[in-house]
Amino acid sequence: MTRKDIVTPVEVAAYDELSASDRRLAELAREAASRAYAPYSRFHVGAAILLDNDEIVTGANQENVAYPSGTCAERSACFYAHARYPEAKFRTIAIAAVGTDGKEVAEPVAPCGACRQALLEYEMLAGAPVRVILCGRDECYILPSVSSTLPLAFTEF
């Protein structure tokens, strides 16, 4: 038997260390979180995706009393982005969350497994890494690609 370690590179940056483009994306993700419909979890998540045509598409989680019928912010944004701009490739996604107390969560929040898999589909479609910015209250985690969030992902056969 052999051992294989899977390492995920993560940069940690304060908001003032982000580029203007990344800071704008983070702000839009935070703003999108305010449009979440989350009466059950009270956990509001927003996502903002920068496309290669310079458009930015946002999404927010939308819950439903029939739990699996809702959708996460990341999938809300990525499905709308591809439906609206089918030729555009994803470049960067920023994700921010507001907790039950109405304040931005301290630690950056990562996408759920279903969202990671959905986002990976668009990274494969782009044919290039899609950067991921996970926003917390004071700092962001910056990952080089969606695939770095899901190292043992389902991929094309």
Q: How would you characterize the overall build of this protein?
A:
The structure is a single chain. The protein is 25% helix and 23% strand. The chain has 157 residues and is of the alpha+beta class. It has one domain (11-149): Cytidine Deaminase, domain 2, CATH 3.40.140. A hairpin with a 3-residue loop joins strand 5 and strand 6 (139-143). Helix 2 runs parallel beside helix 3.
Number of domains: 1
Q: Number of helical runs?
A: 3
Principal-axis shape equals globular
Q: Tell me the fraction of residues in β-strands, as a range.
A: 15-25%
N→C terminal distance: 26 Å
Keywords:
single chain, globular, Cytidine Deaminase, domain 2, alpha+beta, 157 residues
